Amino acid sequence: MSSTEITVDARGHRCPVPTLRLRRALEDAPAGACVRLLADDPLARIDVPHFAAGAGLEIVERSEDSGALSFLVRKPA
């Protein structure tokens, strides 16, 4: 795994903002980097995996704690 990890805090924002912020961060990230998205919009459970699959990205880690969602997404090298 790359040592580069970027955090995008999209808590408090509703669909489609968390996924759009994730996409922008991945576009700006170097190849092989990971972006951690923090979101509290329940639709992120659906939107983020759908976006990742369509973009050819890997979700390395996914967790939920009291409604707060965390996704770690790797940009291909």
UniProtKB/TrEMBL annotation:
Its EC number is 2.8.1.-. It comes from the Bacteria. Keywords: Transferase. Residues 8-32 form the UPF0033 domain. Pfam families: TusA. It comes from Phenylobacterium koreense. Belongs to the sulfur carrier protein TusA family. The keyword Cell cycle does not apply. It is an enzyme of class 2 (transferase). One of its GO terms (molecular function) is transferase activity. InterPro entries: TusA-like (IPR001455), TusA-like_sf (IPR036868). This is tRNA 2-thiouridine synthesizing protein A. SUPFAM superfamilies: SirA-like.
